[in-house]
What we know:
By secondary structure, the chain is mainly α. The protein contains four helices and two strands; from the N terminus they run αββααα. It has helices spanning 29-37, 47-60, 64-75, 94-107, and strands spanning 40-42, 45-46. The longest helix is centred in the middle third of the chain and has 14 residues, at 47-60.
Amino acid sequence: xSRPKTRGRPFPKGKSGNPGGRPVNSDCLSACLREVASQxxxxxxxxxQRLARVLWRRAEAGxxxxxxxxxxxxEGRPAQxxxxxxxxxxxxxxxxxxxxxxxxxxxx
Length: 108
């Protein structure tokens, strides 16, 4: 006979169900890709080196995305400025949207 599922808080307050946390780089995709990238791919090159050559050729052929990716990797991504001004009123508030939806549904 199976136990009913525990609802709410299955662990005592202040205790984690995973006290050790997730192990660092344990079979994550990035670690696996790094391992494969460092392996020989033939022709005396690694997979990472072959990929870099393909990307470079595409950039030379006019692929703008490939050129941007190369630039981002070599020079770093350009800083993007975001101006926030808390004193301005948002164009539409959530309450206004809900009020308008209710009014529209009441009319129909």
